[in-house]
Amino acid sequence: MPHGRAYRFEDPHQLQATLRAGSFDVFANSRVGFDAELIRIDLDRLWMQRCSSRHDWLLRTSNDPKRAPMTFLADPAQSPLHQNGTELPSDGIAVYCSGAFNNHWSHGPSGWASMSLTPEELAKAGQTMAGRELTVPRETYIARPGAALMTRIRRLHDKACHLARTKPEALSHAATAKAFEQELVHAMVGCLTAELPAVRNIRPLRHARMVARFEEFLAAKKYEPVYIGEMCAGIGVSERTLRTCCQEHLGMGPIHYLWLRRMHLARHALHRAGPTTASVTDIAMEYGFWELGRFSVKYRALFGELPSATLRRPPDQVSDRTA
Description:
Number of helices: 11
CATH superfamily of the largest domain: Jelly Rolls
Structural class: alpha+beta
Number of domains: 2
Strand content: 15-25%
Distance between the termini: 21 Å
CATH topology of the largest domain: Jelly Rolls
Largest sheet: 9 strands, antiparallel
CATH architecture of the largest domain: Sandwich
Strand order of the largest sheet: 13-12-9-6-11-4-3-1-14
Number of strands: 14
Helix content: 40-55%
């Protein structure tokens, strides 16, 4: 049954578990905690999401190959949103290849809106509405459909999200859901078939491959603290090149990213554990934080609470709240 819902999250792990159409890693990178809103709408064929945060964050995504997604800025006047080393333009739509892996990051308030069909439904909609079959591209690119089409698709997306936030029961009404889906799919096809030149993604493939090798290296090391020299030797690149690649694709240097990654893993472990079976010291040491006082200070600055408070919270307590 078609439905829509708005959520608010104070925990990035709860957010990444609720996002649809792929697998996600969400890293907060702010000294004032984490606060994000997600609006998720599932219609008969079309899936929609709108996600925004008031603070710095990094979102790593691996798209579901069973969906054909596209993404654009929720607000054209927002802070820049960086995707794979370049800015996603306010007048552009990212159209992804099958199973695309992407890094998105922002300094300051930002949000993105997405829509997806299955590849089969996309092909059928293109044939019906534009007279030609639409296929999932072989490589991710940025389409610029023009001001009128961008305004239309944003307006429809905004309207659907407003209903999900204020009157979600309306989206469960079959006639309302069908009408919205028809308009949204028509706008989506219009943007993908606009008779305007598409601007191909200019991300340097060599840098993308280096970032992938960097992630593989960290996955092999699991939760061990590693250092810049060790990383460079393991990947086979210079320190300067690794820093450049990470800054482009992650919005931060490799050391800070590794620290941030371990902080979020430690928080997730504290959530899952209980004060009778584990201690803050045990978990901090397991994730490579041996200066416990410094760990507590940095943890509180990043997440807005002491690690002991996270540990005392019941493991099954849900930290998202309906908006």
